[in-house]
Write a structure and sequence with these properties.
The protein has about 130 residues and is an all-alpha fold. The chain has helices at about 5-10, 25-40, 40-55, 65-80, 80-90, 95-105, 105-125. The chain has one domain. It has seven helices and no strands. The chain is globular, with a radius of gyration of 16 Å. The termini are far apart. This is Glyoxalase.
């Protein structure tokens, strides 16, 4: 029987992006862990964001495209409860060793995590309508 960590790695898929010898530990973590999780959880992130926007009186849906881009960034950066919920969706798919690596440098990894998620949502803004 497979361990939980083996199963997590199997369903997430391979790393995304190039890893070089001189890549920083954070860059390796980003490409080996964060990007595959964000891709795997993409549909969930879209639904979570749509639900959030709806609960916020639907203002997002009335904005022009540029304002929607700003809204996505502002919400993820400033609404701490929402941000923590998004982080939980990602961290829940960490293996134990990845979690141990994460807690060593959580501040920088959190920044990468949220920036990647912002860019992912912005690139799919048409799916958020």
């Amino acid at each position: 029987m497979k361990t939980k960590d083996e199963t997590i790695l199997e369903i997430r898929g391979a790393s995304i992006g190039t890893i070089f010898e001189n890549s920083s530990a954070e860059e390796k973590f980003q490409n080996q862990t964060l990007r595959p999780i964000l891709k795997f959880q993409n549909d969930l992130f879209l639904e979570v964001f749509k639900n959030y926007a709806t609960k916020q009186k639907g203002v997002f849906f009335t904005l022009n495209p540029d304002k929607k881009m700003q809204y996505i960034e502002n919400v993820i950066q400033k609404d701490i409860k929402f941000r923590n919920s998004l982080k939980g969706i990602i961290i829940g798919l960490f293996t134990i060793s990845e979690y141990k690596e994460y807690i060593q440098n959580s501040s920088n990894i959190n920044k990468r995590m949220m920036n990647l998620l912002i860019e992912r949502l912005r690139s799919q803004v048409q799916l958020l309508e």
